[in-house]
Amino acid sequence: MKPFVFFSIIMVLKIYITWLAVFDGAQPWGPLLKEIPFIWIAFILIEWFSSKRKIGIYLGVNFIITAVLFAVIMYYKYYGVIVNPNALQQVNQVTAVKNSVFSLLSPHYLLIFLDIVVLGFWLMRKKRSCVIKSFFNLKRIRGSVAAVIFSVSLALCVFNIWPNRATMNEIKQAEQMGILNYETYTIFKSKEPELTDKREISQAKINELKGITPVAEPAYFGAAQDKNVIIIQMESFQNFLIDFKIDGQEVTPTMNKLARDNIYFRHFYQMVGQGNTSDAEFVVNTSFYIPYNEAATQNYASKQLPSLPKLLKAQGYDTATFHTNVVDFWNRRALYNAIGFDRFYDKTYFGSEDTVFFGPSDEVLYTKTIDEIQKMYDADHPFYAHVLSMTAHHPYTLPNEKRSFPLPERYQDNMVGDYIQAQNYADQALGKFIEELKERGIWDDSIVLIYGDHLGLPMYSLDKQGLELMKEIYGKEYSYIDMINIPLIVSAPNMSEPAVLDTVGGQVDILPTLANLLGISLDQQIHFGQDLFNQTYNLLPQRYYLPSGSFLNDKALFLPGIEYQDGIHFPFHEAQASQHLTTEKEYDRALQLLHLSDSYVRQLPDVPIE
pTM of the predicted model, to two decimals? Predict the structure, then answer.
């Protein structure tokens, strides 16, 4: 058999495995028409230019393409997007989250490497390599036939790529182009759109795009002036956990009580990307959007960023951030310098006691953090502390001694059950921290904000059992709008009675909401969020975990298709499903907001090199 035919058959099988893992409802002939032409171009080049070691070269090309397909599968299972060359630049971060990666690894995905292992093993053994070589007809394909195959394949690749360049949804674009064509296109396409001149970017223009109506006398302005600020970022905490019970028992009683006793925003959403937790830190502390297809800490940490720590420092605040991981993970050291924290506390401070995943547990985090907060509280000026929990991190495989929630059998030995155990533990640790703050008198003298950093249960990572459990929890099919929904709880002195608010918000809104409570003007600071206590409408562009062009308004989440017209809506309430939920103008405005944020941040001056 000619190696061209043999390896073509092998690649067809691998392509179908990949498409079944990534694309829903793909047409049966799609993979063949969109992927095989790319592969045949590579194989014809081998036929033309290789005379020796042809089987080894075929095997090498086979391995490269297989590695790309495998990366596409695994990245989609973790992030829900198609991997691109920019993302592969962060491969050094993978070793730190290897447990998360392995948890997503279904054994049948590894089958795409089986032929490489078998053929490679046989080729390395001289006696058996002769058998392999005798199996293949190593004569070159006739020149005219090869030329026709190459020409037709090249024409098909161009035909698949060219008409689909304007598709906004990256998943749809990869499906229309073919995965291999898409990866090649992303390498050669223009890296950066033309930036809007920084001098043309004003807060008035941003407010107009967002649909913000200025308020002459904002509610709660200065209600907590000069109070301390404590922001607690809960790892992977999704909103469905609030008031969620299993067999009558609360999973997160601490968070439930906080939501009942304070201001609770139930339509609040993540705005993170590849950097996950570190992206949440960036968005919350700057009120800018994350960059396209990249982690904010890797791309924006070199800039002199307007930020919450700098804003508060100008008001005499002491600022610090607390995280039990190493500070250089996701380039946090540079981020903290760029946004102006006075100090950071990382694994060097917290030590190696009671290590879970990347560092010490939440119990250690809160126990050692409260001592430093006490020192800040005892000083003669207010403070801002950003505290990041971590133990409830994917894949949620806690040590047995930290598992105390009695799960029924259907929740055992699956990711949803492990997630519930991890969040129950995180909630218990948080409860002890809150009690300490109250006993020491710090709670009543502080604004405390608590929110989830990002989703914990990606719908594309869950198996059939997991999706059934989520359907049971929500009473409907688990969807994108459920997946990115996180809680925001605000406790502040001089606030009104506890309330559950339906105002739509995102992490970008935390800075301006805090500034209003503290009575600090943002007239001189560009920001893309809004004060949640004084606006009813919100326009929240989304990136990364959702296709480009996705956004939320006060009615629904919108995901584009090939263009706006074939997009999908996920309403907040089922009763709204038949209503007119979004407009194409909102879609265009959301894209403009993202572009303005990119343009503004990229034109900020660099942090001086010390």
Answer: 0.89
